[in-house]
Design a protein that fits this description.
2 copies of one chain form a homodimer. In chain A, helix 8 links the parallel strand 5 (126-130) and strand 6. The first copy, chain A, has 15 helices and 15 strands. The radius of gyration of chain A is 22 Å and the shape is globular. Helices cover 38% and strands 13% of the residues of chain A. The interface between A and B is large, with 89 and 89 residues.
Chain lengths: 419, 419
Amino acid sequence: MDDPVLEEIQMDPAQMETLDATDPLAKYRQAFSLPEGVTYCDGMSLGALPKSTASRIAKVVTQEWGDGLIRSWNSAGWIQSPQRLGGKLAPIIGANEDEVVVGDSTSVNLFKLLVAAIRLRPGRQTILMESSNFPTDIYVARGVERLHPGTKVKLVGAGDLDAAFDEDVAVALLTHIDYKTSEMHDMKAVTARAHQVGSLVLWDLSHSTGAVPLHLNESKADMAVGCGYKYLNGGPGAPAFLFVARRHLHATEQPITAWIGHDKPFDFSIDYVPAAGVTRLLSGTPTILSMSALESGLDLWSGVDVSQVRKKSLRLSELFLRIVEHRLGTSEVKLLSPRDPNRRGSHLAFQHPRGYEVVQALIDQGVIGDFRDPDVMRFGFAPLYLRYVDVWRAATALVEVLQSRTWDQPRYRQRAVVT
Amino acid sequence: MDDPVLEEIQMDPAQMETLDATDPLAKYRQAFSLPEGVTYCDGMSLGALPKSTASRIAKVVTQEWGDGLIRSWNSAGWIQSPQRLGGKLAPIIGANEDEVVVGDSTSVNLFKLLVAAIRLRPGRQTILMESSNFPTDIYVARGVERLHPGTKVKLVGAGDLDAAFDEDVAVALLTHIDYKTSEMHDMKAVTARAHQVGSLVLWDLSHSTGAVPLHLNESKADMAVGCGYKYLNGGPGAPAFLFVARRHLHATEQPITAWIGHDKPFDFSIDYVPAAGVTRLLSGTPTILSMSALESGLDLWSGVDVSQVRKKSLRLSELFLRIVEHRLGTSEVKLLSPRDPNRRGSHLAFQHPRGYEVVQALIDQGVIGDFRDPDVMRFGFAPLYLRYVDVWRAATALVEVLQSRTWDQPRYRQRAVVT
């Protein structure tokens, strides 16, 4: 945190205006369509809508599909979309263009790469994970365990990871930034530790991509997956991505072998021959409409300096934290995220016994964060569209909802399906 | 074929106009956006664009995503979309609403159900398939074979299927309507044969759904998958669907266990507990934009009588075939599809040694069919948007391209990526 501004951030709205006026990322806010009266601190769950996306989708629907019909697989480049989007994503995660493809869901990609990783390390039986991992990653690993007699998922607590690496670990499946606490792994150090004993690491970058600078190749990462609908702003349920380092590609064999991953899909041969590079990780037909929305989100990232994103993200988070703790003390809410900003992603998590109601009361006031059972409130800071004044407003609203107990109303207790 | 009109169909454009004027499905053509000057006979590859879809997508993008943001998972019903779309699809395939979900690709769904089927028949080692099956189905089966030591894919030729069922067949993975020849299985008879020896049948309905009446439950079908982007008009790469009969659901265990298939996904428990019904077949987050387009396509089907669709489909196909064979004889092109209309789906396949060029020359004249290696031309007849005059025009154009050898030009030999 060699950022003098960060050290000096106070709770002064005038200072916020100055910071916004000199923000090198300020222009990106204009590229997003944000509803009036809403301060959106949930970009780590669903990113906001880029203005260009509506017209992009409309063009894909009416011109490419409606007029071009089947011809658009060639003429509009639909068939290359998994690789083209992968190429656009690669610089955001510090990968080469030929190491990334976009498609399927994060869960399906995790499944494919976990099986592929086990095959790259025959004789080893352990999938190493943290029990604090995003639960769906654990569910996927359980599914892979069931398919491979002998393979065992080993869950360890935070702090026990380093010691848990041994010669039996085929692969560690780790979330780079914890979905709940926002705690961030040191990718380079953990990968080096894994490689010491010959293990692979499969990183889940769902809460990292577009939130913090990533250097997959510099970190010698083996494999990764990530999400298109959070900080990449690809739309609800946007296709996910996967990364496999070049050095592993020739030997990588994934389990869902299907036509788009075939070396010559239009020969319609009955023998499966995997495509040469990362294309072999693909399976079925890409969902073109959802892919187009994600491509629009990725295009917005093309001129963005991710180190600027990180710098602003740290400032926004610290600002939020200081306002909350300065005005409330630490008795009303408890910071669950690491206090050291260098160990955090781009969101903050606080514990409050009535967190669900607090979040609902805030939404009623136009400040959108989210809640994770049993008592965690999350507030995310997407630097492309959040201003300093927004974060000041959000923090102030949280303070006031808690001080005035606005949350303590029956209507805020009604649980929705999705929390 | 108890259809007197069908028996009397001639090559008379005036008769075509009369048939269009009295067509009970004529109104549906108005519901589609079709480009000027194009006769579209490729609905079995990518269905046409329903007019309502552009505005539906625009609303999902700008209102539900842009304004509603994360709240739309509840308020716009995004979270229930896999089951809601499944419920809308169920009547089209003769299933109950609680037996169908929409999501993932056909390949991924095939993978999940094939593994699930093997688990339902422990001790049996054979996956029975036809070598003429759509190649991607064979690739998926090979992938499943590799995951299950002992399990073997057994490929048999057409005509050898019946004799190939024995007590070792866990599941037969069969395409109901052949993607190339259009030949259709008797679902009820094949299923009964499989059940005689205790095998399951997993039907690929990609070329059947929305093309022919389907009665999954009446046929005692076990499992099925199908495609959203062909006759359902869900858009390029639309999500696929899967069906599991109620009697199997409680014991069905699929391999890609992930959060959307969990009994209580928002409890974020580390233990995977499958949801009670067909929901357990889901894995990752649904691709909402692509799902919305498919839902728009499904809504268009809500008032459609599939038996009328079949009746018109048979008339359109017979008409095309008679024009072609009456004017060309059978020496210039060879019908690859069964001659008996009751054994065909909704497309016709012809062999011609220069089929690729012929199809390109036709596209240049606004008649879109497609080509499959090495020598097969396919022409599909989607009764919701194709008129009798269209089919008359398409068949006439094919005759003229062949008679005048319009196809014999260097520019038609240039192969595109997607054929």
